[in-house]
Amino acid sequence: VRRPKNLPPGPWSLPIIGYRFDSGLIHEAFVDLARKYGPVSSVRRGPFLFVVLNDRASMKQALVKSGEFFSDRFVPGHIRWGIPDAEKNAAIVWSNGKPWDDQRKFFALSALVRRALSLRSTLRLVIWLTEIKALHGEPMDPSALLNKATANIIVQLVFGRRYEYDDPEFIGALQAMVDIFRTSSCLISTTIKKLSRKIISGTSLTRIAHDISKDYSMDTFWRIVLDFFAAGTETTAVVTSWAILYLAVYPDVQKKVQNELDAVVGRGRQPNTSDRPNLPYCDATLMEVMRIRPVLPVALPHMTSADVSIGPYTIPKGTIVIPNLWAVHHDPKEWCNPHLFNPDRFLSADGQTVVKNEAWMPFSIGRRDCLGVQLAKMESFLLFTNLFQQFEFKLPPDQPTHSMRGHPGLSMPPESYKICAIER
Hints:
Helices cover 48% and strands 8% of the residues. It is an alpha+beta fold. It has a 5-stranded mixed β-sheet with strand order 1-2-7-4-3. It has a two-stranded antiparallel sheet with strand order 5-6. The protein has a two-stranded antiparallel sheet with strand order 8-9.
């Protein structure tokens, strides 16, 4: 296939089919390309031209400095098929232009700003923690409980109500949402729509739904509701699931987390978001979990809205641009021993202050970064600190090791595992 002039280097591609990757995990395949062709490479898949960004410098130049030309979202064919008039009705994640601007403002004003995480949300975790205690340290799969807890927190924050964990409608909608992330599907389940209608009944979102329907279809509104859940449910559940697994594998880190919680919070009350500045090791541990196993190893695809340059290369209009977050988080130029789990890398020399690193970007960067980033960070902090304040996590005796590779999909949770939660 003939390549446009001055395009980033990349492998030869078969006509029509394009390039075939050898690796089963696409983020690792992109890293292999970077080793051969450099941090900015190009590749064809079918009729599409992709440019892959594999280092911090290229991502910052493209997504921040030239963000206005990289802010469009490429809408894959299966999503266009599943969403009538996709350019207008694709909600926040997949929309572009004015629809994206308007819906992003709607999302921010009606949820993240209006309903911040508070101590009240922390108190609602009591029921969930009681369920874990009732298992008396027997091996369990934490994913189901984590998904229920995170989804219910979002329901509380955004819609002002909660559901019992055994509510059939709640469980059905939750499973439908998880399937979307684990299979990269875009189709909205009728179960999610049904629960969404029930949730917003009698809340301020009833009026908002009516107002937004003047400019967008109701399908768009249900997709925005799904984005509410996506911003804080799957992300937080995956982060917490990795945190439990890593701290079970690294018991010395788990002990340091619990010692800090005991010293700052004690056992007489639950941790809340106001404790965060005084829990630097807990904060650093969560950051290290999100670095070494980002929820989305590869950020959602961008698309160039004009011909634009990155360094010495020219990226044609309409090119699909893939930020490989995994590559940045495991770049030895940015991190010492990047494949080693080490929360201390985010702490000052005296261990009292969290140190930021520009190469830490689990929520991507630029205009199309995760708009629920603050919500996800706070929710992850609440779950993490409440869990490790009350439980010690160990792998079952018959399962002393576990794969840390991850399950590929739109998000990357751990492969299914069992854990023993022993009350402290």
